[in-house]
Amino acid sequence: MKKFIATLLLVSVLFAAGCAQVIGPYYLEQEQYEEGIRVMGDQLKENPDDAASTYYVGRYYLALNKPKQGLPYLQKAVSLDPENADYVFWTGVAYWAMMDFDREKAAYEKAISLDPNHISAHLYLGHGYADRGEWAQALKQYDVVLKLDPYNPEALYNRARTLRGLDKTSDEIAAWKRFLEYYPDGSMAMTATEQLNLHGDFTYRNHIIGKRNVTLRSLAFKPGTSVLDADGRASLEVLSAMMQVNRELTVNIVVYVKGNASLAKARVNAVRDYMLNSNPDIERSRLPLSWFGTAENVQVGDRTFALDQSVSFITEVR
After folding, report:
1. What is the DSSP string of 188-226?
2. Stated pTM of the model
3. Residue 276, CA distances (Å) to 236, 281, 313 in order
4. Which end is more exposed in the chain, N or C (fewer Cβ atoms within 10 Å of the end residue's Cβ)?
């Protein structure tokens, strides 16, 4: 009851502060879509030509996966404020949800004509081209997005996909690495890593750490030594953090150096020493070591790659 009263008071404050432009985003952020439809619907009864209220009701229906109910509101918002690129863009999203791809594309193009810097319209237009296999057009749109927003994760990821579609392998590999440099976590990172590995590039690898799948940048050393390169140290920090959170986690560090078992042993000890020195509360027994004077054979899809020098991690939960 107290929460309900507090919500009512907050809504009252928002109404007083500035109508739909303030209230509308609130229900989106709180994921209270049905309540948003009710409240904004009451607003529309009082002012049926309020473009912002009309737009947000359409957005709420889209969020509820009801594009047929939402589209008329979005279309009306456009008719009330035809120069608003956001309103036009979201009609495109509704058309996409209804599988009307020609109108979807036209909506994004219209939004871009109103606002040439509309990132979402360029991004979604790129997605549409990619879905149709029009890779060159998709690449052009993703490049526009990245010019406006260099760290946009969807554009970085899908740009690599388009380069694969264009059979530009070296550019594709560089694009996957660029994405992973900024976004090394999550399902998209795992897929990006799989694509890299399929090309025989193991700069990043996916590991099962305890019960989680984790993408880690591969460890590297100064040539012929056991001195860790700086780039891979972040991976050890990730592992250490996971071990500190889960005190039952044991990580077996495994190093391969083809034809040089003594160097493999020196490297595996260097890795453990780095982790223990950085995190003295991790027990030494939780970091067992294995080393081999052979290449590591890695299965990726239907191919097997021999890595002459590598570090991998095998974990168990006690």
Report:
1. HHHHHHHHHHHTT--SEEEEEETTEEEEEEPP-BSTTSS
2. 0.88
3. 10, 8, 16
4. N
The 10s digit of each residue's pLDDT in 129-173 is 999 999 999 999 999 999 999 999 999 999 999 999 999 999 999
Q: Could you tell me if 40 and 19 are in contact, meaning their C-beta atoms sit under 8 angstroms apart?
A: no
The number of domains in the chain is 2
Q: Are residues 100 and 220 in the same domain?
A: no
Do 147 and 273 lie in one domain? The reply is no
Tell me which residue range forms the domain holding 14: 2-196
Amino acid at the residue 89:
F
Residues 164 and 86 in one domain: yes
Residues in the chain: 318
Check if the beta carbon of residue 208 is closer than 8 Å to that of residue 215.
Answer: no
For 66, which DSSP code? -
pLDDT digits (tens, 9 = 90+) for 301-312: 899 999 999 999
Ramachandran angles phi, psi of 293, nearest 5° = -90, 35
The residue among 281, 276, 287, 295 whose CA lies nearest residue 314 is 287
Instruction: Read off the CATH number of the domain in which 39 is found.
Output: 1.25.40.10
Taking a C-beta distance cutoff of 8 angstroms, is the pair 94, 62 a contact? yes
C-alpha dihedral sign at 183, 186, 188, 191: positive
